[in-house]
Amino acid sequence: MAEPRPAELKYLVERQREELKTLNEVGRLLSSTTAPQEIARLVASYLRQTFPLALCGVLGVEQRKLLVIQFAKIAQVDIAAAVREICQRASEHLQRPLSEEDLARTFEDQSPGAGQWALAPIGYLRSNHFAPLRFNGQVTGLLSVFSGKAEAFTKEDRHVIDIVADQLGAALRNAFLLDELKRAGQLKNDLLMIISHELRTPLTSIQEGVHLIVEGAVGPTTAEQQDLLKTVGEETDRLGRLVEKVLLATQLVTGELQWTFGDVNVDTLVKELESTVRPLAQARGVRLEVSGVAPTLTCVGDGKRLKQALGNLVENAIQATRAEGQVRVTCSATPAGLDFQVTDTGAGIPPEDLPKLFERFHFTGGVDDRKTGGLGLGLFITNAIIEAHRGTTRLESQVGQGTRVSVRLPQKPG
Description:
The protein is of the alpha+beta class. Helices cover 48% and strands 20% of the residues.
């Protein structure tokens, strides 16, 4: 095989250099946004700066959307003809018919205004090039460029446009997938919010009804009936707490949670926390030690939410600790802030689970391995509340030895 001549070698080097330049410039543009329509606009503008474009079309097949941007004054009949040709070329690449009626079309006029440089108004489009958009080998759309100049696109120009189309296809596909994920997340949040609100009213009615029966408001009950009613009441209360957690977690995600910030007495906060969780510790036979703090120590925050955040940590620790084990809660003031620590002598957490502990609906060992019930929301809620107070949460654990969770909150200035 003959070696390339110097002129051919120079041509190949220059072509490779231009390809790398195009990839770099287009990559920089595409990394600046994840909005599909903005991605299409940026690519069209880039091509307009490089070639004498009068019209550019970006078609997304799966979304059935066509964005058409005109950079010069073009007769409507010529724009309509261009759209028909885009559909025809897309049908050829897809090997199935695609009509204009199948598409949601958006038209944008970016032709220069008075006093700006511009192509002369054109009566018709004289040349074009069509480059399929692909992702993983599948045709996902079409990049179409039109010019009012005859033979506007050389072989090299078409090659560059094809390179841009390859980049655009991957970028649009990723952007559309991200959009779908966001919509799915929003639908999930909406569903959780609706379910939580709808469950609150009937649960309240059940709780009140059970209370009235237990109190004898509708007549005497036997000891056996009292035991059954107690079980119903306890399970209804537990379900109510789960519903409140779902609602709180969803509000934290959507930003709809209402906060009430003010001065919080840390000693009072710790004492209220202790009175709330001690019955659970006693019921499970777990020793609970809570260290007191200076009566004058304060921080700025939402007292109710801070109690929820710290309460989740202590409840988790008690649930993870066997009878005769120990849970210790301490609070200390340091130059860096207020440090809360919750330490237990439970089974510990496997290292592979640690990175995901603060995610919503995460269970140590997976959903099927749950031993203590719950929804996997406690640590997520705690972390979100602490972050809203400009604090930090850190968790350390060793299997067979226990877990320590440290929370740091900023002290009240001065």
